[in-house]
């Protein structure tokens, strides 16, 4: 299933063409105004599906991920390239790999510098034109509060001095491009309702006074930059269909009257 939310009124429809195969623990990124991409996942192998925003038609890229993996993170430098990082490679372990997809022709390369640690169940968000950020996740030895930053000018990696406010896995990310990025939810000895905000001007972190409407992990995020960001689905002890909305720039939280078309996590 692929649900579509119109930003003009938050109404939901469900695409007639869904994913090329049913799967969970996948990741998505978008070239705003052009196409969205969904990659990896359990049973997804290396598959990357592409949705043309002009008509929501789906194709599958001839070149997928550099390795079969799931529970990964993704973000994009809109107009230029999308990035898919980390994840779990079956029978191998957690990956540091970051694959890059050039939007001009959907060709894939793999960055020489990957994540600072092998991680699965991480997330990502981006400030298009400037940098992308991967945060949180599971190292196998514990949960991560690390936030890695990739400068889009040369794909070089640095690590923020201030990471997440709590080490967590299975959070979600979204961004108000040009202003701030947000990491929300996750799990650490219990479900998390916290939403951390990173100001793109200096990468300083604050924590929103109003978090998610329910503490949950394994959710997903998306945003209409300049207007609002959304966190949807997840697991709070049962699967959720709710979608929380954070209005930019005040970060006021509400939740949509119409949620997902079905309760689900790891979307």
Which features characterize this protein?
4-stranded antiparallel β-sheet; 267 residues; globular; 24 strands; 0% helix; mainly beta; single chain
Describe this protein's structure.
The protein is mostly beta strands and 267 residues long. It is built from no helices and 24 strands. The strands form seven sheets. The chain has a four-stranded antiparallel beta sheet with strand order 3-4-5-6, with no helix packed on it. Strand 15 and strand 16 form a beta hairpin. The termini are close together. The model has no long low-confidence stretch (mean pLDDT 96).
Name the beta content range: 35-45%
Oligomer: single chain
- Which regions are unreliable across 5 or more consecutive residues at pLDDT < 50? none
Calculate the mean pLDDT score and round it: 96
N/C terminus separation: 10 Å
Order of helices and strands: EEEEEEEEEEEEEEEEEEEEEEEE
Number of separate strands:
24
Annotation field: number of helices: 0
**Coarse morphology:** globular
Q: Structural class of the helices, strands and pairings?
A: mainly beta
Q: Rg from C-alpha positions?
A: 16 Å
The largest sheet is: 4 strands, antiparallel
Helix content: under 10%
- Main sheet strand line-up: 3-4-5-6
List the helices and strands and how they pair.
Elements: E1 3-5, E2 12-14, E3 27-31, E4 35-39, E5 48-52, E6 58-60, E7 73-77, E8 81-85, E9 88-89, E10 93-94, E11 98-102, E12 108-110, E13 123-127, E14 131-135, E15 147-151, E16 157-159, E17 172-176, E18 180-184, E19 195-199, E20 205-207, E21 220-224, E22 228-232, E23 243-247, E24 252-255
Antiparallel strand pairs: 1-2, 3-4, 4-5, 5-6, 7-8, 8-11, 9-10, 11-12, 13-14, 14-15, 15-16, 17-18, 18-19, 19-20, 21-22, 22-23, 23-24
């Amino acid at each position: 299933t692929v649900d579509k939310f119109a930003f003009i009124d938050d109404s939901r429809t469900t695409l007639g063409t869904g994913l090329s195969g049913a799967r969970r623990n996948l990741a998505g990124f978008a070239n705003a105004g052009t196409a969205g991409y969904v990659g990896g996942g359990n049973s997804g192998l290396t598959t990357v599906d592409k949705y043309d925003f002009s008509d929501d038609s789906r194709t599958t890229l001839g070149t997928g991920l550099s390795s079969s993996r799931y529970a990964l993170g993704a973000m994009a430098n809109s107009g230029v390239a999308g990035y898919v990082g980390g994840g779990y490679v079956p029978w191998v372990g957690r990956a540091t790999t970051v694959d890059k997809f050039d939007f001009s022709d959907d060709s894939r390369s793999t960055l020489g510098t990957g994540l600072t640690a092998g991680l699965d169940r991480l997330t990502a968000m981006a400030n298009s034109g400037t940098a992308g950020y991967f945060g949180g996740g599971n190292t196998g030895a514990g949960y991560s509060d690390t936030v890695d930053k990739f400068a889009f000018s040369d794909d070089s990696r640095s690590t923020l001095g201030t990471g997440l406010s709590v080490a967590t896995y299975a959070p979600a990310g979204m961004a108000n491009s040009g202003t701030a990025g947000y990491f929300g939810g996750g799990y650490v000895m219990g479900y998390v309702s916290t939403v951390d905000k990173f100001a793109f001007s200096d990468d300083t972190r604050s924590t929103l006074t109003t978090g998610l409407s329910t503490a949950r992990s394994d959710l997903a995020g998306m945003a209409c930059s300049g207007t609002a960001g959304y966190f949807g689905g997840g697991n709070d002890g049962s699967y959720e269909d709710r979608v929380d909305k954070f209005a930019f720039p005040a970060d006021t939280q509400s939740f949509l009257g119409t949620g997902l078309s079905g309760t689900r996590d790891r979307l």
